[in-house]
Design brief:
heterodimer, A: 410 residues, alpha/beta, five-stranded mixed beta sheet, 16 helices, 40% helix, B: mainly alpha, two-stranded antiparallel sheet, 77% helix
């Protein structure tokens, strides 16, 4: 009998019995109960979601708005950029209002999104995806996104017509504006003495005062765009001499001064990693909150909108081809276009969501919104912003970025 | 029947030697060899973004290779190589004293403690450990501010982050455990009498170390180096999180070509060149280690003269030397002990930081807000619901234990039945709670983390089961039925271990769309089967490759060390091969399979690169989700998730150790099982 036990090497009963005395059990049990009590006590506390300004969900906007809410069911899977929606809007609030359970996954570039959708052949399992405008035509062509059901999205009338009917989707059959934004940079005035106002200043300071202490966005068009804009060249250029000149400067002179290629520098800025960083306006706005949290002084930091030219990008809600729950997707997009919900989202991520009468809306629904100058831009500023056009030159730009990374790696 | 006829009859019906390895062979052919072959094919194609799979194979050319053979690729590869080689050497230098100390200088009980202390940190999520390094090294962080206040460093604070140094530290940290374990096993294996004999023959301690200990531990050291160097070459995640621009490794270049630039031919060409370069480095390294002893031997007449002179001088000082030796030995032990403690502290600090920061009141994981809060833990539990669940659990287990004590003295029940009462009570508690309240769904249904953890477990379980089955069977076949096929199979296993994860990942991602039209297999990976969606199935395949290779090695090593006579006796007594396998072989390798299963479970839980590229909605795992978060913001509840995973793997590890311990295995044997030797 005992030989068998040894050979089988399985659990033997004796050891357990000896170890478990009544005292041990009571102690263990009490600890367990104690932990459960603690867990119960803190289970009801809410996580803080609004960063940089409360949304004031109770205030209703005045005026003629469409506020249709379509109930749905099941699970809704969203594939989007990181930290791009108020957690409640893709969580508890969505569940209670629309009766859908949401799952969110993240990607870091449009190409990642396209590769993911293409290689899963329509079975990616995602419902809502959020591509940037210029990439939508190729996604339509490859059959990666399907048409919206506009009968399920009556709230689309709330969107400012300026942000509908874009070049990539003139009839909004496939997409609707989620938000738009721009790019600029944020710098620490205590570490950089120069007064900075444009892209040339950015390039100069990164090679000078902030050498080895600067970050650029990890995306080829933006990175190369900084040089094109500083030199008055169209950043969508396909001319070989422009691209060569760009490569010559960025790879040979500029790259060695870069500390990091970082598309979301807000957290690391607060950690003290950079003195200056290229950033999208919403992320730069969030940086102020993080800096304050880390015990720093937000007033030391200054945001500069890129000039004389900069980017205008728009991210859009689309529905993936083969989406398991297209009905819920339409319902959610529709719900997100209600002004109060849209402003709640805006207060979280800090980008202009394209609603009508934005200034009146903000003053009514979110009067406490901070740093509005980083979200809303005047007509004169918008006039300097340029949209990306996808050209064959993109390969060259990516090559310049990779070469810069290799050079910066030392 | 006459003997010769019987022999002929038997040889016709005898199964081929590689019978047991057939599942593994088929698996590797379909999911490793074929996909990689396609990658090789793609490397000769051209980029074509009008297609869904953006490769144009109509005209093959070697353009991609010529564009790779430029300055950029080699510069990045040199940087990667430099970091990996330096990190490997540092791991050996840091780890060898610890392994030496544990193997030779401590009692059996402490061996187990030290080994556990080394292994346990390796079972935390690799990504969160890496992120945790940002906490002490942040220029604005607590440590940095303290150092600035004390005047030790300049006012800019700690400037290690976003440099190659940070990457170096983190890589050494992440792989140290995987170096110490094989080193310990190798040193522990050495017969103590060899070393004693060497000393009796007059060799000093240094001579013994270099002349006896090190050569005998040689194979183990090589195993440790392989286990660390090769993954380091392919690891780019660490560098991305900590290294900034200086952390540009070849793996990230390949990944970016593949998804970012959508240039699959270029990415494929880079991946193939990378494997070639890694193999070349290994060959060069092996050649160096092959040449060195021969060079030493050439110089041996000279060495002998020197040694004779030293010995002559020493003989006249024997008495005083004996006292000095004893003093030196104690000093050495103390130094080694202090070193070991320091290394253990180094291994545990980030873990403690992760636990601490999961209680951070602020919204960022790395930036300490100055106050603690339970809100991130609170979000994991739903208050009254889980309290009720825990009470139910406790009640059911209490009933089970009371029943056991009651039945303790009732001898009419067999002891195995009594064992299973508690286990049964636990399982019953799980089922009842699950069925009645769906508690697991409530607890885990927390956007992002909960799903990710659940998917991590499902993916790791499935991959582990596959790995244990096919790996176990191949291990048995390799140990018991070696033949001509062994070389080819071992070469495949070695290739799987050597191939960087990114290459496996891109191979599989391009492979699955190709086979989706194959009748049965295709639907498994697109629409899934049963409750498991296609994405989970893909993860099972992707994670099982490396895991099954590991299990194969572990089982083979364990079985090779055991006498075949038991199995032969079973045959002599009339058991069929199948019965002998089931009743004799399987129990013998049970512990090895469990160890292999646990190791592969831990590896699969932590798998990031393959999982990222293969994941889909509903199959995102914890490391993948965390990797996504590192690109934007990391909230403290990632720490919560990491701690949960850590506790589960810790529990499983403890369970395994108890299991092996009951079977009479010492700490050394347990460690040996884990490293496949």
């Amino acid at each position: 009998m005992s030989n068998e036990k040894k050979q089988l090497k399985m659990l033997a009963p004796e050891g357990f019995r000896e170890k478990l005395s009544r005292r041990a059990f009571l102690q263990g049990g009490t600890a367990l109960a104690g932990f459960a009590l603690v867990a119960a006590a803190c289970g009801s506390s809410d996580g803080d979601s609004a960063e940089g300004g409360e949304a004031g969900g109770e205030n209703l906007a005045s005026g003629d708005w469409s506020r249709v809410v379509n109930q749905s069911s099941g699970t809704l899977a969203m594939y989007t950029w990181g930290d791009y929606n108020d957690p409640e809007l893709v969580g508890a609030l969505a569940a209670s209002t629309l009766n859908v359970t949401m799952k969110v996954d993240y990607y870091a570039s449009n190409e990642d999104l396209i590769t993911k959708l293409a290689t899963s052949g329509g079975a990616s399992g995602f419902d809502i995806v959020v591509p940037t405008g210029p990439y939508i035509p190729q996604m339509i062509e490859k059959g990666l996104i399907q048409k919206l059901d506009k009968s399920l999205i009556p709230n689309m009338v709330n969107v400012d017509p300026n942000y509908l009917a874009q070049a990539w989707d003139p009839t909004n059959e496939y997409s609707v504006c989620k938000n738009w934004g721009t790019v600029g940079y944020l710098y620490d005035t205590t570490k950089i003495s120069k007064e900075m106002t444009n892209w040339q200043d950015f390039l100069d300071v990164c090679m000078g005062e902030a050498s080895g202490n600067c970050a650029v966005i990890d995306a080829a068009p933006n990175y190369c765009g900084a040089w094109f804009w500083a030199n008055g060249i169209d950043w969508n250029t396909e001319k070989v001499e422009d691209l060569d000149a760009c490569e010559k400067f960025l790879v040979e002179e500029f790259a060695q001064h870069i500390k990091a290629f970082d598309s979301y520098p807000s957290t690391k800025l607060a950690e003290g990693a950079y003195a200056i960083a290229m950033a999208w306006n919403g992320d730069a706005r969030q940086a102020y909150v993080r800096i304050e949290e880390a015990g720093g002084n937000p007033d030391d930091w200054k945001w500069v909108l890129g000039s004389p030219e900069t980017e205008l990008w728009m991210d859009n809600y689309c529905i993936a081809a083969g989406a398991p729950n297209a009905e819920a997707a339409n319902a959610w997009i529709n719900w997100d276009l209600i002004p109060e919900i849209s402003i709640k989202d805006l207060s979280y991520h800090g980008y202009h969501t394209g609603m009508k009468n934005m200034s009146t809306l903000i003053s009514e629904v979110a009067p406490d919104l901070t740093r509005g100058d980083m979200i809303f831009f005047g007509d004169d500023q918008v006039a300097t912003m340029r949209t990306q056009v996808i050209t064959p030159a993109l390969d060259r730009l990516i090559d310049i970025l990779n070469k810069s990374k290799a050079k910066a790696g030392g | 029947m006459t003997v010769s006829v019987a022999a002929k009859f038997r040889s016709k019906t005898r199964a081929p030697k590689y019978l047991l390895a057939i599942p593994a062979i088929i698996w590797y052919l379909v999911f490793f060899a074929a996909p990689i072959a396609f990658i090789v094919l793609y490397s000769f194609g051209t980029k074509d973004t009008t297609k869904l799979l953006p490769v144009d194979l109509s005209s093959l050319s070697s353009n991609s290779y010529s564009s790779v053979f430029d300055e950029t690729f080699f510069k990045v590869f040199r940087a990667t190589l430099r970091i990996s080689i330096v990190a490997t050497i540092m791991c050996v230098v840091i780890g060898l004293p610890v392994a030496y100390f544990a193997a030779f200088k401590v009692a059996e009980k402490w061996k187990a403690v030290i080994l556990a202390a080394v292994v346990v940190p390796s079972f935390t999520s690799f990504l969160i450990r890496t992120v945790a390094w940002r906490i002490p090294l942040a220029p604005n962080g607590t440590l940095s501010k303290w150092l600035v206040d004390m005047g030790y460093i300049g006012s800019n604070g700690i400037q290690i982050l976003e440099t190659a140094t940070a990457v170096q530290i983190a890589i050494v940290y992440n792989y140290l455990g995987f170096m110490i374990l094989p080193l310990f096993v190798a040193l522990d294996r050495i017969d103590v009498r060899m070393r004693e004999a060497s000393k009796d023959l007059g060799a000093g301690r240094i001579a013994t170390f270099f002349g006896v200990t090190l050569p005998l531990a040689g194979p183990g050291i090589i195993a440790g180096v392989l286990l660390t160097f090769i993954p380091m070459c392919g690891d780019y995640v660490t560098a991305t999180v900590l290294g900034g621009a200086k952390g540009n490794m070849i793996g990230s270049m390949i990944a970016s070509q593949f998804s970012g630039a959508q240039n699959w031919p270029l990415g494929s060409a880079m991946a193939i060149l990378m494997i070639g370069a890694v193999l070349l480095t290994l060959i060069v390294g092996a050649a160096i280690f092959w040449i060195l002893p021969r060079l030493a031997r050439l110089a041996s007449p000279l060495m002998q003269q020197v040694r004779r002179k030293i010995h002559e001088r020493a003989a006249s000082q024997v008495r005083s030397e004996k006292i000095q030796t004893r003093v030196k030995r104690e000093v050495l032990s103390k130094v080694l002990a202090i070193w070991t403690v320091l290394v253990l502290i180094f291994l545990f600090v980030p873990i403690l930081l992760v636990i601490l920061h999961s209680f951070n009141a602020g919204s960022s994981f790395t930036i300490w807000s100055g106050s603690t809060s339970l809100k991130w833990w609170g979000e994991l539990f739903d208050g009254a619901e889980s309290f009720a669940v825990l009470i139910r659990f406790a009640v059911l287990i209490a009933i089970g234990l009371i029943a056991k004590t009651y039945f303790k003295n009732k001898t009419y029940l067999s002891s195995s039945l009594k064992t299973w009462i508690v286990t049964g009570a636990f399982v019953l508690a799980l089922i009842i709670n699950g069925v009645i309240t769906n508690w697991y769904r409530t607890i885990f249904d927390f956007a992002g983390i909960g799903d990710a953890i659940r998917n991590s477990f499902i993916a790791a379980f499935g991959a582990t089961i596959i790995a244990v089955i096919i790996g176990g069977m191949s291990g048995v076949a390799l140990a018991r039925r070696p033949g001509g096929w062994t070389k080819a199979f071992m070469a495949t296993v070695f290739l799987i271990l050597v191939t960087p994860e990114i290459m496996d990942a891109i191979a599989l991602v391009t492979w699955f769309p190709r086979i989706k039209d194959v009748p049965l297999i295709g639907t498994i990976f697109s629409s899934g089967w049963g409750p498991f969606n296609g994405g989970i199935n893909k993860l099972w395949v992707g994670q099982s490759l490396y895991a099954s290779a590991v299990v194969t090695l572990i089982v083979r090593a364990r079985l090779a060390g055991l006498d075949e006579s038991l199995e032969e006796a079973a045959g002599d007594l009339g058991a069929t091969p199948a019965r002998a396998f089931r009743q004799i072989t399987l129990p013998l390798i049970a512990s090895a399979m469990v160890a292999g299963g646990l190791l592969s479970f831990a590896l699969c839980l932590d798998n990031a690169v393959i999982s990222t590229l293969l994941s889909e909605a509903g199959s995102t795992t914890f490391p993948v989700a965390l990797l996504g978060a590192t690109r934007s913001t990391i909230k403290p509840f990632w720490g919560v998730g990491a701690v949960l995973l850590f506790m589960v793997t810790l529990g499983a590890l403890w369970f395994l150790a108890v299991l092996l311990r009951r079977g009479g295995d010492s700490a050394s044997k347990i460690a040996a099982t884990f490293t496949g030797s």
